[in-house]
Amino acid sequence: MPITIAINGAAGRMGQRLVALGSEDKSLELVACFEYSGHPKFGQDAGDVAGIGELGLHLVDQTDETYEAIIDFSVPEGAHAAIERAVQAKAALVMATTGLEEQHKAKIREAANVIPIVWAPSMSTTVNLTMKLCEIAADALKDIQGGADVEIMERHHRYKEDSPSGTALRFGELIANKMGITKHIHGREGRPGKRPHDEIAYHAIRTGDNPGEHTIIFGLLGETMELTVRASNRDCYASGALQAAKFAAGKKPGLYSMNDVLGL
Ligand SMILES: NC(=O)c1ccc[n+]([C@@H]2O[C@H](COP(=O)([O-])OP(=O)(O)OC[C@H]3O[C@@H](n4cnc5c(N)ncnc54)[C@H](O)[C@@H]3O)[C@@H](O)[C@H]2O)c1
Ligand SMILES: O=C(O)C1=N[C@H](C(=O)O)CCC1
């Protein structure tokens, strides 16, 4: 039997790719496409909006259908609605929305007591693998003579609303934990003075239609290492999220990561 899924934010850039890939996956059955009622395409067929032709599923803000998993790529308020929908439906939740505030994060942790939740700022396989590689690098370089400066650069499309990306922040968190760094700064201007060793700096670039790119720099005296991971389109995130929904459906309540999903 296919796993029944719902998508929250179904008319968005990511939502459209989830509708397209989810509806052609034989192990899944797409049963609901949720959208904000003020969206200009609200009520239209989700397949038409995604550019794959009519699916017979409309963009709605409520449904009588039951589903085993709901995937959220929306905005913080939409994420809040997705958590409530998941808890009410006793469904698994795949939480992909970034830029969440502490109140939303607390709600996710609380909901994980009653439903399974996969929560990750990036559903991409190569991004999650690069996170592992950064942890290895950070561990190896934490006590290197002369110190290793960590800077994280990210590039995304001009429409992105949060900054820096959730993925950049997660890279920084993982590296900081390994290296014992507590200071995180965002860009530099004026005369900030000599760079201290105990900080991680984030630099966010917003141009064109870039679907996402991260470079993590480990700068030593005399040599530099850079790890770059780059999406060429959004399907790496969409297919990772669908994989996460299959993984989480029917699992016991708790918080799961993409490492759990991907076996990393
Ligand atoms: N974790 C990942 O792998 C990953 C990958 C890509 C994007 N993202 C994140 O996903 C989010 C969405 O990205 P996007 O580029 O698709 O944005 P988008 O603006 O194109 O789409 C968001 C959609 O959510 C809808 N929405 C707003 N309020 C809603 C509500 N209350 N209920 C349901 N839907 C609602 C909007 O109308 C819009 O259609 C962002 O936070 C982004 O950073 C995460
Ligand atoms: O397009 C976006 O927005 C993306 N956001 C995620 C983030 O903030 O980390 C992941 C990549 C795409």
Automatic annotation (TrEMBL):
The active site is at H156, K160. The keyword Oxidoreductase applies. Residues 127-262 form the Dihydrodipicolinate reductase C-terminal domain. It catalyses: (S)-2,3,4,5-tetrahydrodipicolinate + NAD(+) + H2O = (2S,4S)-4-hydroxy-2,3,4,5-tetrahydrodipicolinate + NADH + H(+); (S)-2,3,4,5-tetrahydrodipicolinate + NADP(+) + H2O = (2S,4S)-4-hydroxy-2,3,4,5-tetrahydrodipicolinate + NADPH + H(+). PROSITE patterns: DAPB. NAD(+) binds at G9, A10, A11, G12, R13, M14, D61, A96, T97, T98, A120, P121, S122, M123. It is found in: Cytoplasm. CDD domains: DHDPR_N. Its EC number is 1.17.1.8. GO terms for cellular component: cytosol. It comes from the Bacteria. Belongs to the DapB family. Homotetramer. This is 4-hydroxy-tetrahydrodipicolinate reductase. It comes from Blastopirellula marina. The lineage of its organism: Bacteria, Pseudomonadati, Planctomycetota, Planctomycetia, Pirellulales.
